[in-house]
């Protein structure tokens, strides 16, 4: 569109210049001829009558509507047919007085354009010598109405032509744009839907241009992606089922081994040293294997999405005391708990027991005393509060490079932790249990040394009263 | 010497559990199938049945229901799955307790002794008045007989003990944890599923499933209490 406009503008300017130049050239040429013709009859010091005669002569030769002629010599001036020469600018006069050639100027008076030509009359004193200024100058004023009308007509014509071309260009541009934009928009919608997880989205392919090509390759990509995602999901499901199956199959031999470990343990002291040691190793290995299999089963339950919350409203302080007491840890853990009855919330007690037992157990095993357990409430907003449970120890803390991975499965934080009875799944299961409650878990090192594990559980205090008791009535 | 009937299909596990429990001082008879277990119930007269949940042929659940139909012997369910749903289904079929495989003989022994102790404890409650009436429900603490609308109600040991515990203090609210400790002697959180499943079973036997229970009432977010209608 812009190029059409600029092309139009350039063409117009060329044409306008051409029209004006041509008329101007012919006027000047004719005027020069006329002036040369009268110059021969003019004496070196012409009188008013001489001037008047020359003017009349030139005007006659330039018979045309609205032309006026003026002759000056010193203070003398003669003109025809009228004295209206106010359009003569001083610059033009000065220019004519000093030059030997014709000087012209285009002026605009009262909305009408005029061409004013000034021509000095010169004497030719002989061949080879320069012509001499006589001091007499003749002026010609030519109205250029015709030329202007011509230019205006041209402008109108160009305007019309440009408007039509512009309209046509706009229509064409719109057509082309919609032809391009519609498929592009469809492509954008499709990519957005694909990002939302709808991998079955496909585009309708029209025509055979680049956009159709693009649509076709989008469809190919989507199909390939859908295929590989399906394959990945299948493999993942297979891997999960494999873990569940293996863990399950391991249970039967383990059940047999576990049942007799007590018999072995009881008899170890009465056997010779090597046999006793061998039996002790088998017994320990069996109990570690049992723990691992139980953890694997728990993890595969989370993976299968089969882990369900069995919620009950309990007093968290009382609950933690129970957890510690059940494992004989009361004396080993410093507790800072709220008074009973203060911190009640709905949790799955069995799962929270696993969480607390794991964190305290880890602190006792890997950290150094004193192990502290503190519990409090953090009010986030007026309607959102969290129960914050923190377990800290005074041990070496968690290695910096291990920090981002400690909640991953089978991640062993340090070499000192590899030789322990834990399966490497404990913290992963702990985190899963906390997340199942809609809670958060984090680990950090204390400034003075030692590790701190923080569990935040959403407090459902007000909701609990309105909610019905699902655990008792749902079954 | 407690007499234990083990129903377990895997020969190695069967032998190992037999060995382990004998070592703990039990008189053990092991059956390989549910059918064999049911056949041995009368000749062997066990004090407690240790029942595997997954059995070929007749499933552990069916065996559990069949035993409950004609006998009040305590049943400890051994489940290889341990998913909540498996445990709850087993408990609702009438098991008094459950353990998840693999289990050490010592743990199993502790569970067996606890179940047996609870039975004895129920009997020792006999110092109370012979029979109390709660609406149409009559509880004979000495004879350990419960009748509803004149009909005797067959209750498993854990159900009976739960009912006796709750009805001993009508109106008092018991938390699930309190009930767990009083009835099952478990001292840590983890098995409130036992309480809920047992309450459901008890309500079913008292004919008040669905609708508003008259005797065992749920205290929202806390536990249960016994109320006379």
UniProtKB/TrEMBL annotation, chain B:
Residues the record lists as 4-aspartylphosphate modifications: 52
Binding region for DNA: 129-228
Gene3D superfamilies in alphabetical order: 3.40.50.2300, 6.10.250.690, Winged helix-like DNA-binding domain superfamily/Winged helix DNA-binding domain
UniProt-listed SUPFAM superfamilies: CheY-like
PROSITE patterns: OMPR_PHOB, RESPONSE_REGULATORY
UniProt keyword Transcription, yes or no: yes
Domain Response regulatory: 3-116
Molecular function per GO: DNA binding
Domain OmpR/PhoB-type as annotated: residue spans: 129-228
Record keywords: DNA-binding, Phosphoprotein, Transcription, Transcription regulation, Two-component regulatory system
Presence of the UniProt keyword Cell inner membrane in the record: no
CDD domains: REC_OmpR (cd17574), trans_reg_C (cd00383)
Descriptive protein name: DNA-binding response regulator
Species this protein is from: Streptomyces dengpaensis
């Amino acid at each position: 569109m812009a190029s059409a406009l600029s092309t139009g503008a350039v063409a117009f300017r060329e044409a306008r210049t051409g029209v004006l130049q041509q008329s101007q050239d012919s006027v000047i040429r004719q005027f020069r001829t006329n002036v040369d013709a009268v110059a021969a009859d003019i004496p070196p010091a012409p009188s008013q009558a001489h001037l008047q005669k020359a003017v009349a002569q030139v005007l006659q030769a330039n018979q045309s509507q609205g032309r006026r002629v003026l002759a000056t010599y010193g203070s003398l001036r003669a003109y025809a047919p009228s004295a209206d020469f106010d359009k003569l600018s001083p610059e033009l006069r000065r220019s004519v007085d000093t030059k030997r050639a014709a000087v012209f100027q285009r002026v605009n008076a009262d909305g009408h354009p005029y061409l004013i030509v000034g021509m000095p009359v010169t004497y030719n004193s002989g061949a080879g010598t320069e012509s001499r200024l006589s001091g007499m100058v003749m002026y010609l004023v030519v109205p250029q109405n015709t030329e202007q009308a011509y230019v205006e007509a041209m402008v109108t014509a160009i305007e019309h032509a440009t408007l039509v071309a512009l309209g046509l260009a706009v229509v064409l541009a719109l057509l082309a744009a919609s032809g391009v934009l519609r498929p592009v928009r469809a492509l954008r919608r499709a990519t957005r839907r694909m990002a939302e997880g709808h991998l079955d989205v496909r585009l309708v392919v029209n025509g055979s241009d680049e956009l159709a090509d693009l649509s076709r390759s989008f469809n190919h990509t989507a199909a390939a992606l859908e295929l590989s995602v399906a394959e990945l999901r299948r493999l993942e499901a297979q891997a999960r089922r494999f873990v569940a199956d293996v863990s399950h199959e391991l249970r039967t031999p383990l059940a047999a081994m576990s049942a007799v470990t007590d018999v072995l343990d009881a008899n170890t002291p009465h056997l010779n040293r090597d046999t006793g040691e061998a039996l002790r190793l088998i017994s320990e290995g069996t109990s570690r294997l049992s723990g691992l299999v139980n953890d694997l089963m728990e993890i595969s339950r989370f993976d299968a999405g089969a882990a369900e919350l069995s919620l009950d409203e309990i007093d968290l302080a009382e609950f933690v005391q129970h957890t510690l007491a059940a494992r004989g840890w009361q004396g080993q853990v410093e507790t800072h708990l709220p008074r009973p009855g203060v911190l009640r919330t709905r949790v799955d007690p069995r799962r929270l027991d696993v969480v607390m037992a794991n964190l305290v157990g880890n602190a006792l095993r890997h950290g150094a005393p004193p192990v502290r357990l503190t519990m409090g409430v953090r009010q986030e907003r007026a309607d959102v509060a969290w129960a914050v449970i923190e377990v800290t120890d005074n041990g070496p803390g968690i290695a910096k490079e291990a920090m981002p991975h400690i909640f991953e499965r089978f991640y062993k934080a340090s070499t000192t932790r590899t030789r322990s009875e834990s399966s490497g799944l404990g913290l992963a299961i702990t985190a899963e249990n906390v997340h199942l409650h809609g809670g958060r878990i984090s680990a950090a090192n204390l400034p003075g040394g030692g590790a701190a594990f923080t569990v935040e559980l959403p407090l459902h205090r007000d909701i609990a009263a309105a909610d019905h008791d699902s655990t008792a009535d749902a079954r | 010497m407690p007499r234990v009937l083990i129903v377990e299909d895997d020969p190695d596990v069967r032998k190992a559990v037999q060995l382990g429990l004998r070592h703990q001082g039990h008189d053990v008879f092991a059956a390989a199938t549910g059918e064999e277990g049911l056949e041995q119930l009368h000749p062997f007269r066990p004090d407690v049945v240790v029942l595997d949940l997954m059995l070929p042929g007749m499933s552990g659940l069916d065996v559990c229901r069949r035993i409950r139909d004609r006998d009040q012997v305590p049943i400890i369910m051994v489940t290889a799955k341990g998913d909540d749903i498996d445990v709850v289904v087993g408990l609702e079929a009438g098991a008094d307790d459950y353990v998840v495989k693999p289990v050490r003989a010592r743990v199993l022994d502790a569970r067996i002794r606890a179940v047996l102790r609870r039975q004895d404890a129920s009997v020792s409650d006999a110092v109370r008045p012979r029979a109390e009436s709660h609406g149409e429900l009559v509880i004979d603490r000495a004879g350990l007989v419960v009748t509803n609308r004149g009909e005797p109600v067959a209750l498993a040991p854990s159900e009976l003990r739960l009912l006796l515990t709750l009805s001993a203090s009508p109106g008092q609210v018991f938390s699930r944890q309190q009930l767990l400790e009083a009835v099952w002697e478990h001292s840590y959180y983890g098995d409130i599923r036992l309480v809920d499943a047992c309450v459901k079973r008890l309500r079913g036997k008292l004919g008040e499933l669905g609708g508003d229970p008259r005797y065992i009432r749920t205290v929202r977010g806390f536990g249960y209490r016994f109320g006379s209608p």
